[in-house]
Structures are given as structure tokens and as C-alpha cells.
Amino acid sequence: MEHTGSKNFLLNPNFLPNPILLQDEELNKYILETSVYPREPELLKELREATAKLPNAFFGTAPDAGHWSFYWLLSSPYCSLTIPHDGKITAIDRDRKTYEIGLPIIQKSGVEHKIDYIESPALPVLDNLLEEPKNEGDFDFAFVDADKGNYWNYHERLMKLVKIGGIVMYDNTLWGGAVAKPEEAVPESKRLWRRSTIEFNKSISADPRVEISHVSVGDGIIICRRIG
Ligand SMILES: C[S@@+](CC[C@H](N)C(=O)[O-])C[C@H]1O[C@@H](n2cnc3c(N)ncnc32)[C@H](O)[C@@H]1O
């Protein structure tokens, strides 16, 4: 059964960005300055700094969460920089402007040929991919960070597209800590996606097709390995 999608929170004037889970600012700064920034490739630093200036900078995956998951799981500094020359990334964003923020840096780093950018809502793209039997089990990795109300619908499709042994990651799975709070204690603008996140977390935890680890960095990340 399809889970119900949700409204775009940017249309909601009361939307508040999620706080990162680590509430101690000094400690957060300490972690970033000692363990994340010193090892960050120069081009990613440029990308992070370019994004930080934008009004929706809070959209970005937290640097410690990105470092932890992309660096360790993909065993390579941040995907496109070091995937093999003939490796491919399918990047889907319905707003081309978002892709264009990073495009000059992608071009400078010489990895543009590895990225197939598709300007579209993501679900129909995954459905199109699934129409081609050759795409089943063809992906090593997927990262989902948009349209939180549809996470389960992405998951169902990714369980066919990503190979057994492959990794899928979902960002913002602790929704600023709201998942553990009673609804009344959460600002109204966050309630809808709090509910869908709780529902998603419960469903994925019971899904025998994956092993999961719920990691409490940034805004929470669920990392799963497809096992069936
Ligand atoms: C939270 S941001 C992703 C940030 C990114 N992970 C980073 O670290 O920079 C969400 C992005 O998803 C896009 N988006 C929102 N809903 C979408 C949908 N249904 N399909 C595809 N893209 C969507 C938005 O345009 C936005 O660029």
C-alpha cells in the first residue's frame, strides 16, 4: 500500500528548520573542527561554504552526518569524487536550481560525466527505472533526503533497484528529536512529517529485507543494507 505523501514544507510559512541532535554547540564545533573539516576535500569545502550562504542552508545534510555515512560506508571520500571513471550517479531533484548550486564545483572537480542529473519529482523516475528489468538490483547505493512523507514509497522501489548487499540511507529520521516527543510538544509545522517519520521508522525496523542502523548524528540517519 502507498503511504500518503505530504505537502512541501517550504509552502508553510511557519516551518522551522530542525535543530541538529547534538545540542551542545561547542561540542558540535569541536567535532567538526577536529575530525570533519581537516579531512574534507577542498572542493567539498567550497561546496559546503557556497551552500552555507543560502537562505535554505539548513537543507544540507549535516557535515558530520555526511562525513560519517558517505566516507565510511562508501569507503571513499564522498561518492562522485572517487567512484571509478565509468561509475555513474543518478541524481534526482525536482528543482534544477538546487543542482546548479553545486554544478560549478562538480565541473571543476572533473566528475560531471559521472552524474546523470534528472530534473523531476523522484518517485516517477524510480518507477521509470523499474520498467527496465536491467535496472533491478543494478544500484550499489541510494541516499534519500527529500519528500519525507514518501520515504516508504521510495523504500519499496529501492528494495528492487539496489542490489542485495547494497546500502540505502535515509536522512532526517529523528526529525530534530520530534519523533520521541508527544505531538503537543512539537510545533505544528513539524507534526505532519513527525508522524510520517515515526511511521517510516516503525515500518523499516520491521522490514526483513534489510539490516538497519539508526545513527544519531546530524538530524538522524537510518542506514540499511539490503539482505533480501
Ligand atoms: C533537504 S534538500 C537535500 C539536501 C542535500 N542532501 C544536501 O546535503 O545538500 C531536499 C531537496 O529535495 C528536493 N525535492 C523535494 N521534494 C522532492 C521530490 N518529491 N522529488 C525530488 N526532489 C525533491 C528539493 O528541491 C531539495 O533540493
UniProtKB/TrEMBL annotation:
A single GO molecular function, which one? S-adenosylmethionine-dependent methyltransferase activity
Q: Name one GO biological process term.
A: methylation
Cross-referenced InterPro entries: Cation-dep_OMT, SAM-dependent_MTases_sf, SAM_O-MeTrfase
One Pfam family per UniProt: Methyltransf_3
- Which UniProt keywords are given for this protein, alphabetically ordered? Methyltransferase, S-adenosyl-L-methionine, Transferase
Provide the family line. Answer: Belongs to the class I-like SAM-binding methyltransferase superfamily. Cation-dependent O-methyltransferase family.
Q: Fetch the PANTHER family from UniProt.
A: CAFFEOYL-COA O-METHYLTRANSFERASE-LIKE, O-METHYLTRANSFERASE-RELATED
**Job of this protein:** Methylates caffeoyl-CoA to feruloyl-CoA and 5-hydroxyferuloyl-CoA to sinapoyl-CoA. Plays a role in the synthesis of feruloylated polysaccharides. Involved in the reinforcement of the plant cell wall. Also involved in the responding to wounding or pathogen challenge by the increased formation of cell wall-bound ferulic acid polymers.
The protein's name = Caffeoyl-CoA O-methyltransferase
Its taxonomic placement starts with: Eukaryota, Viridiplantae, Streptophyta, Embryophyta, Tracheophyta
